[in-house]
Write a sequence for this structure.
């Protein structure tokens, strides 16, 4: 069985800024547990010699050259912003580090 | 906010051992950003160097800047690090509007460089080896401006404005292992370490390395523990220390603050703290908490970076002379006294003097100008010497004008301030202000005669052996010449006259 607890689900919800009610916490605890248990089956097919991979395709070193390409105009950049001011995105003040 | 109690510094070191750790962020000077082709220049009009990638629009695909990878490898090699044969990027998830994606693309598990070391000399001449844990690539965040509230700071702000020109600018973060054993010199070591890093990235040409512009930024971790205790003390991480002087002051402050708390039976809160240059103190930021659960996971949009041995060796071959060797070489070439040389290094004047010498100045003359008049003016204007409006070549020009006897020291200082005021090159100023010294002996002799006529007993005194009596005549001549005479030559002429 997985280690997913209601406490962990609440913690994740808080990190993701998602508000959950108690019935959702119960439901997601169960569902996330099931998903993790399913994924955990992979571990029976690998051993310590299996390299970890983050991509299914063996592709490395995809680079671009350091050449300036056109950017968006300020108007374009801000066109999807819910709020703006002085050429910048306007957001609610959030108490955190400066 | 109540002012924190501080323990006397010497007393704190008597009771506690200091452990520091430093995180230095280097902003690379690539032409473009880390993952997109936007111009790496955040001084432009807000949100004009942005694109769907760096403002995190759905469906955009980042691609790694080859030059940024090479610069990062060069930094790693210069710090004696091993280069990871394979490394990828991860997403560091957090919600804050300085990045529009809700994550920072960074390296977590496999930093591009690891296990290095740097030898650092502090002002006393003591040397320390700082072990480097890792150097990894990441991207900078956008700039927030807080609007409203009494002071324009975040407290009480009504809203914030975000400029993403800086978002996605390539950074290399260099992290040290805990540094033990610096004792009372821990603050100086922290500053000297950052200075060395700055010298290295400047010599490599991979960063503009200007601290006042945020190209080099330092977070200082400080903890203390009673002498003999194995377990490390709880550390604080002081941010916003963006000059060498403030790094030194902030570390010192934290040692004194933590010592006062521990000796009074209190405990240190693990937290980030902010350094306030104006008050000379740190204040509590936020505690380390759930918010630090960044849930790193591999960045699916970027494939691993696997630098080839050929590339690594090519970059290794291009490394400039390491700063310690360079210091040794210059000390020998310039022939300064040990103290003089150390002062030059500690004041960050070595590069300027080297350039001035290359432009024709004698080493001692270049040193005298930089650590004397230029440093004095910079200091009085609360600026760094690098911000002064004079090039090393111009300093060399002034030194050469003095050397050749065209101007004297006093005039040279006038020329210097005119250069700083933007009036032109030293030679132009000498000619436009008509400052060249009177080297015509005839004119000097005429002025000497005039002065002697007013002080007829001077020659007699000199003949009696009171050579200092010449001073009065020299003074009068210098005044008559409006300072534009070579005082040494005037003295010679006066003494010659007395011996006639």
């Amino acid at each position: 069985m997985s280690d997913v607890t209601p406490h962990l689900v609440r913690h994740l919800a808080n990190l993701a800024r998602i508000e959950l009610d108690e019935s959702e916490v119960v439901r997601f605890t169960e569902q996330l547990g099931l998903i993790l248990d399913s994924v955990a089956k992979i571990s029976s097919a690998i051993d310590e010699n299996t390299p970890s991979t983050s991509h299914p395709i063996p592709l490395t070193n995809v680079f671009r050259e350091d050449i300036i390409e056109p950017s968006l105009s300020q108007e374009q950049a801000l066109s999807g912003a819910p709020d703006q001011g002085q050429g910048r995105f306007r957001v609610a003040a959030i108490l955190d580090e400066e | 906010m109540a002012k924190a109690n501080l323990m006397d510094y010497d007393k704190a070191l008597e009771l506690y051992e200091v452990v520091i750790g430093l995180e230095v962020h280097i902003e690379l000077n690539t032409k473009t950003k880390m993952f997109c082709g936007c111009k790496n220049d955040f001084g432009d009009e807000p949100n004009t160097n942005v694109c769907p990638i760096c403002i995190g629009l759905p469906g955009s695909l980042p691609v790694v800047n080859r030059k940024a990878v090479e610069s990062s490898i060069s930094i790693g090699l210069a710090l004696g690090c091993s280069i990871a044969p394979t490394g990828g990027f991860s997403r560091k998830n957090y919600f804050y509007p300085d990045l529009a994606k809700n994550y920072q693309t960074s390296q977590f598990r496999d930093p591009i460089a690891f296990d290095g070391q740097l030898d650092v000399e502090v002002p006393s001449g003591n040397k320390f080896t700082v072990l480097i844990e890792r150097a990894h690539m990441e991207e900078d965040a956008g700039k927030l401006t807080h609007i409203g509230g009494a002071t324009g700071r975040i407290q009480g702000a009504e809203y914030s404005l975000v400029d993403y020109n800086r978002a996605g600018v390539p950074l290399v973060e260099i992290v040290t292992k805990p540094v033990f054993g610096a004792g009372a010199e821990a603050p100086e070591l922290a500053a000297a370490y950052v200075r060395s890093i700055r010298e290295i990235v400047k010599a490599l040409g991979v960063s503009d390395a200007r601290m006042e512009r945020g190209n080099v930024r330092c977070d200082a971790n400080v903890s203390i523990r009673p002498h003999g205790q194995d377990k490390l003390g709880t550390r604080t991480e002081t941010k916003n220390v963006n000059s060498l002087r403030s790094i030194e002051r902030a570390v010192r402050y934290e040692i004194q603050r933590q010592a006062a708390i521990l000796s009074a039976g209190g405990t240190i809160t693990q937290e980030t703290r902010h350094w306030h240059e104006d008050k000379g103190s740190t204040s509590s930021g936020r505690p380390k908490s759930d918010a630090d659960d960044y849930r790193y996971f591999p960045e699916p949009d970027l494939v691993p970076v696997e630098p080839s041995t050929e590339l690594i060796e090519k970059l290794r071959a291009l490394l400039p002379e390491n700063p310690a060797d360079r210091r040794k070489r210059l000390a020998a070439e310039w022939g300064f006294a040990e103290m003089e040389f150390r002062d030059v290094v500690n004041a960050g004047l070595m590069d300027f003097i080297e350039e001035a010498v290359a432009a024709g100045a004698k080493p001692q003359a270049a040193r005298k100008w930089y650590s004397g008049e230029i440093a004095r003016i910079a200091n009085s204007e609360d600026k760094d010497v690098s911000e002064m409006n004079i090039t090393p070549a111009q300093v060399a020009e002034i030194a050469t004008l003095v050397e050749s006897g065209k101007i004297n020291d006093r005039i040279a200082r006038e020329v210097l301030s005119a250069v700083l005021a933007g009036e032109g090159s030293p030679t132009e100023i000498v000619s436009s202000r008509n400052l060249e010294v009177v080297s015509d002996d005839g004119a000097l002799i005429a002025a000497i005669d005039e002065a002697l006529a007013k002080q007829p007993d001077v020659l007699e005194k000199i003949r009696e052996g009171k050579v200092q009596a010449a001073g009065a005549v020299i003074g009068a001549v210098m005044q008559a010449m409006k300072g534009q005479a070579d005082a040494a030559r005037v003295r010679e002429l006066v003494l010659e006259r007395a011996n006639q």
Summary: Helices of chain A lie at 6-15, 22-40, 74-78. The CA atoms of residues 74 and 86 of chain A lie 10 Å apart. The first strand of chain A starts at residue 63 and ends at 64. Chain A touches chain B at residues 11, 14-15, 17, 54-55, 57, 59-74, 77-78, 80, 85-98 (CB under 8 Å).
